[in-house]
Specification:
It contains 2 helices and no strands. With 63 residues, the chain is mostly helical. It has one domain.
């Protein structure tokens, strides 16, 4: 299965949404700062899960 998920694009989109909400006055400066910190934490955790190799079982015996 192929995934076309781009974590960098996801991060940029989420960060832009937060900035738009801040500019619109939906969230204050402190809330925006906390939201960006949480977004950064989620992004780093995501990269750790995505970065690396997927364990594939070794060759199986043919019958």
């Amino acid at each position: 299965m192929t995934y076309n998920f781009d974590p960098d694009r996801w991060y940029e989109d989420e960060r832009a949404r937060l900035e738009m909400r801040r500019r619109a006055g939906e969230i204050g400066e402190d809330e925006a700062t906390r939201a960006v910190e949480e977004l950064d934490r989620r992004y780093e955790a995501m990269l750790k899960r995505l970065d690396g190799t997927f364990p594939v079982a070794g060759p199986t015996a043919s019958k």
